[in-house]
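Handoff note, outgoing to incoming analyst
You'll be picking up this chain. Sequence as last confirmed:
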Amino acid sequence: MIMLWKRSGARPRVRPLAAWFWMLLAAAAAGAAIWSVSWWLLGVASKAPAGAPRVSAQIDAVRTGLAAGAGAGAAVGLMLAFRRQRHQEIATALSDYDAGERRITDLYIRAADQLGSDKAPVRLAGLYALERLAQDNPGHRQTIVNLICAYLRMPYTAPADVNLAVYRDQHRHQVRYQSARRGLTAQELKPADTREEHQVRLTAQRVLATHLHSDDATRFWHNINLDLTGAHLIDLDMTNCSIVTGTFRGASFTGGVFRGAAFTEADFGEATFSAPDFRDATFADATFTGHTNFRNATFSSDADFSGATFSHAHFDGATFSGAYFSDAIFTGAYFNNATFSEDAVFRGATFTSAHFDSATFTGDADFSNARFSDATSTRKDGFRGPIIIGAYFNNATFSSNANFSSATFTSADFDGAIFTGVTDFSSATFSDVSFGITDPSGDTTARALDIALNHIWPKGWGVKPAEGSAGRLTRITSA
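Most recent structure output, in case you need it:
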């Protein structure tokens, strides 16, 4: 079959060759077959004995040539028949494709209309219809996920009997964030406070979590991005989910579980996490392979990142209650200006570079057995700029105990740091450590506010009494 193909947008269009072309082709094929076969056989017949035998051979040669021409014509006819059949098959396939797309579009529009209903059962039916549509049509999954995410981004007020004080605070935060982004007033954003809507939103969250759960191969939706910017999320459970890009900037979480989740890119900037009934924010054993943003996030309850793996994690300006990063792995960790109002536990964590400049530790800070490595790495996440190796605690404030026992440092800067409670560097190892030497006497800008406590400083360092009971870090031997 010979035909020309053109493209109009994304859909192929078939343009068959003109009829005169096929007539000319058939005639040419028949003529060529007659001439070539006759010429060859006449050449053979010319070698027959003269007389009747030669004449008979020549007649047979001509007859065979004509038969060959008829065969060539029949072959062209067969080709034309195949062409017509193939053309019909293509037309049928395109018709079926169009019908399927129209059916999917119709189902999608009807389900989207159901989501806009004022009746909760109708909205639930719309969610389940979208779920079924996405499950059966992989090419439409991201679009359907986008619609579900858009629904969850709609402003929402929780039922009055479900931790109202917590939800009210979160709604205020949500309204402020949405208003700033969209230029709307709080009154325009205020939704109806219904128990039914609470159940609808929980169902929408479960639909996403069910199909992003990487352990269920039959129902797993691959390569999905989530945009839940400014969304109000209740008991969101993304355990072992796999997400390419997760955007949760400005979102409000009442409980949030991401245990074992895998992100390529993640943005939780300015998000707020609260956990009524002791439901903490949990990212234990999660994997963040690309750029990760928690800048200015607020954790009003404990945040558990134990065993998590980060490429480049930015927690600058974040506010934590209790923070647990035990055995976490960081290529780059940025906690500049972060506030830890309760215990901050980084026990056994591994850092290629760590930045805690101007961080405030109100509770105990535990960096025991942490490793601050000088290993270099090749960035694969598109993050620009060099990796600055070392541990930086410049101007950090430790208002309670600071435990760096058995930690391993390649280089560490504590210039301007303030140590209030017991500070323990026992068995810690350093290639280089600085507390900010500022004058020939060896005094530094780093201070211990109570030198009577049982501090254990790095080898070669001690305190020199300063004002009151305080002291300044100083070299007592060559390090």
